[in-house]
Design goal:
single chain, 3 helices, about 25% helix
Length: about 170
């Protein structure tokens, strides 16, 4: 479900900035060891490079990651799907109908509205985040660094089982 309420949208992003110390930038991995990290995650986390994935591995990603989200999310618990400075959704990973882009009407938009895109599991030009509603685990896609940051022990454990199948490189 698309989050239409501006207050709720802003509160969610405030939590992202506060809890994950999110610092958006256009810096690429490997440019300099002095570059600030995009996140400062307290607790256990892992980082994976995704720049060497094949087309076949990219095709596997949606089903594998969705299944992992289902396995680590208790029945009835929801997740946020966040596209930085764009749309925000709250969804049940078991419900594919909630994981679709939808038309959103705007009074002052020249076309009367636009699509709010449900983010993909691989960043393709913007930051895409998938975080459980309690911020206990998350999957954070960084577009320019071509990385996936994962936090939360259960999620890390499940990603560790598949990252090589997906063609990811373990960075941390």
């Amino acid at each position: 479900m698309l989050i239409n309420d501006d207050l709720e949208y802003n509160l969610i992003w405030d939590r992202v900035y506060e809890k994950l110390k999110f610092k958006p930038s256009c810096n690429y991995r490997g440019h300099s060891m002095k570059i600030a990290l995009p996140f400062q995650i307290s607790g256990n986390y892992a980082v994976y490079g995704i720049d060497k994935m094949t087309d076949e591995q990219i095709d596997l990603t949606d089903d594998i990651i969705r299944d992992i989200f289902i396995s680590v999310t208790p029945e009835g618990q929801r997740m946020y799907a966040l596209d930085w400075q764009h749309s925000a959704f709250i969804f049940d990973p078991r419900n594919k109908e909630e994981q679709k882009s939808i038309w959103k009407e705007y009074k002052n938009h020249p076309n009367g509205g636009c699509y709010a895109y449900f983010p993909g599991f691989l960043p393709d030009g913007d930051y895409y985040f998938f975080i459980d509603e309690f911020f206990e685990f998350g999957y954070l896609g960084h577009p320019w660094r071509e990385e996936i940051w994962v936090f939360g022990d259960k999620l890390i454990e499940k990603i560790e089982e598949v990252y090589q199948t997906l063609g990811w490189e373990k960075i941390r």
